[in-house]
Design brief:
single chain; alpha/beta; Rossmann fold; binds aspartic acid
Length: about 325
Amino acid sequence: MKNILVIYTGGTIGMVKDAQTGALKPFDMKKIYEVLPVLRKIDCNIETYQCDPIIDSSDMNATKWIEIASFIGEQYDSYDGFVILHGTDTMSYTASALSFLLDNLSKPVIITGSQLPLGMIRTDGRDNIISAVEIAANTEVSIPEVCIFFDNKLYRGNRTTKINAEYFEAFYSGNLPSLAKVGINISYKKHIIAPNPTKEFSVYKNLCTDIAIMKIHPAISEDYIKAVGNIPNLKGLIMETYGSGNAPTQDWFLESIKDIIAKGIIVMNVTQCKAGSVAMGHYQASCDLRDMGVISGRDITTEAALAKMMFVLGNFSDKQTQKKLLNSNLRGEIS
Ligand code: ASP
């Protein structure tokens, strides 16, 4: 029988209504079995761990990612799979960060949450957590990946984006199909799931937070870009551009980006589109960016680009190595 560790970080999934105020507040992990006794019936041994404090995922940050990754590292040999209960708001960021921090992962790490608290009648949390545990404990298919399970689909976590704050279909993976779908059966797309690693598992313990994200829009000003470039200690800039990586071609814009690069700040170009890829050089509007040394994020999500930069700049100091890694597919985050 498989041993699964369920780690509760917080989020809507574990929320109950405060009797006095009516506001949603986090509950005690031990009560998960009161709310969801069916969990005991899944064919695996489940142990639980509650993070302290449990948080709304809006409070998730680099320190907490390293804590979660380190905790998984400490518990790694004792369990066959991990399920992380997490708020949906930053779930894609956390999935991306963990995918980089957990190197040569050979066990499933499935992150799930819900749009409605577990305690509510129509909750999506019930199905999400049951299926996430079943998938983590499955004996047929090896899933050596950090995944998000939501609304009957298993996704590679670093390919996802939260796209809906209302409906149960909250996550979207525009550039990679789901790894599995839950219906009467759970059908796995084995050809998409990452192969088992050949090297030993290890946990990286550093992340650089000197990174900014700048969305290009028609009203962007020179002052704004200069202010971003002048952020003290800035080491990396993710530039969300139009379509296949296009940005304004006016001199003031290009000169401002050139100045940022001249300061040694690494600039990565990602698309604002929810599917498709940056292809610098496809239009004139991206040729200059390519020529001045902007790195193509290709079909990476903004969430994964942030996590990748935090990981690469946090763990490798040589500029050439940083650029090489940022240009490479490290965890299936680009096609
Ligand atoms: N604000 C909540 C969180 O991300 C929303 C959710 O869990 O869906 O923690």
